[in-house]
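Technical annex, item 7. During the second reporting period the consortium partners agreed on a shared format for inverse folding records so that results from different sites could be compared directly. Each record opens with the tokenized structure and is followed by the designed sequence. A conforming record, contributed by the partner at site C, is shown below for reference.
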């Protein structure tokens, strides 16, 4: 089969690999149809690592995908050949203390697609996944929408952990695909006071169109001043999706006493810091979001019911052979890109 491998920093090549085969009764063989380029993929593309997870070349990349079932093991019950499915890229053991506690996303033996030392990436023609990671869409979604349910499910989980409710005052710092997914998920819960920031003007405009009550560029205006002029008591929740120290500092300043800082962004540095005196005096709660936790089906339902319309996130489409071009475009924030989708 054809697959895309990272062969050195910033270099992707189409390679031939043996097609994967079913190994367990609950395995399913997929023909991959759509793969989204994610910001975390760019960490590996540009730096070769996220924290302690370091790439060993060649490395098969990618984790946002959808596909069609080709073959199912004898123990598979929920899908059958021909079904179109959204894919949760996490594979959990189902037995450890975390899985038993309803936290399969922090499973002690977690395997994640396109994560060094765990599972190979999905940017290729075939993929084997356990049935538990697959969600049939039954024609309710397009295959492109099904792939978008991976980032959208992170937004759903972030909103769930943040405990958004109508009447809450919310900030989202960084409105790339994940920040916009948080915005879409939150708006589906009836929250209408959402303030958004981004350093790219076209993403500021998209946030306004997607339902933010105000959006601004921190390089062009004092966003803390502008937001607090409208919300002098401060915000209830700020979701940091940029992975930047400056955004974390802004978040603490924007929050009201007793507010909640929800960190979704992945910093490229090993350490970040907080003005602890201000954090302590305000009694700010800090919540980290680790991917998605059983939220893929919720994301599918939101799209199928028309409560979330994520199609605008996909701004560019590429063939498998154009994967290098796709990654370079996203890495350089070129041509108004939000989400690049690779079509197999």
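Designed sequence (site C submission):
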């Amino acid at each position: 089969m054809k697959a895309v491998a990272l062969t050195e920093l910033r270099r992707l090549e189409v390679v031939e690999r043996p097609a994967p085969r079913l190994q367990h009764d609950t395995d399913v063989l997929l023909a991959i149809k759509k793969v989204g380029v994610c910001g975390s993929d760019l960490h590996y593309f540009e730096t070769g690592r996220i924290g302690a997870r370091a790439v060993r070349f060649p490395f098969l990349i990618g984790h946002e995908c959808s596909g069609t079932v080709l073959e199912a093991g004898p123990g598979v019950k929920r899908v059958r050949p021909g079904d179109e499915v959204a894919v949760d890229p996490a594979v959990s053991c189902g037995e450890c203390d975390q899985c038993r506690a309803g936290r399969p996303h922090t499973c002690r033996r977690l395997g994640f697609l396109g994560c060094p030392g765990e599972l190979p990436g999905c940017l290729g023609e075939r993929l084997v996944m356990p049935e538990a990671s697959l969600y049939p869409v039954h024609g309710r979604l397009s295959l492109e929408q099904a792939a978008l349910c991976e980032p959208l499910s992170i937004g759903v989980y972030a909103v769930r952990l943040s405990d958004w409710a109508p009447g809450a005052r919310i900030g989202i710092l960084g409105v790339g695909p994940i920040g916009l997914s948080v915005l879409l998920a939150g708006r589906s819960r009836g929250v209408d006071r959402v303030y958004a920031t981004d350093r790219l003007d076209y993403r500021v405009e998209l946030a306004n169109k997607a339902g933010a009550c105000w959006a601004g560029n921190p390089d062009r205006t004092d966003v803390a001043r502008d937001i607090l002029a409208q919300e002098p008591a401060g915000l209830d929740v700020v979701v940091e999706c940029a992975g930047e120290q400056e955004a974390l500092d802004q978040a603490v300043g924007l929050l009201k006493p007793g507010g909640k800082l929800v960190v979704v962004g992945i910093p490229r540095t090993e350490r970040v810091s907080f003005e602890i005196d201000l954090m302590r005096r305000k009694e700010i709660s800090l919540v980290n979001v680790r991917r998605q936790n059983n939220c893929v089906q919720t994301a599918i339902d939101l799209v199928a019911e028309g409560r979330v319309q994520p199609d605008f996130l996909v701004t560019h489409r590429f063939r498998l052979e154009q994967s290098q071009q796709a990654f370079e475009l996203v890495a350089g924030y070129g041509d108004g890109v939000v989400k690049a989708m690779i079509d197999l």
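The chain has two domains: 2-136+310-343, 155-288. DSSP finds ten helices and 20 strands in the chain. All partners now use this format for quarterly exchanges.
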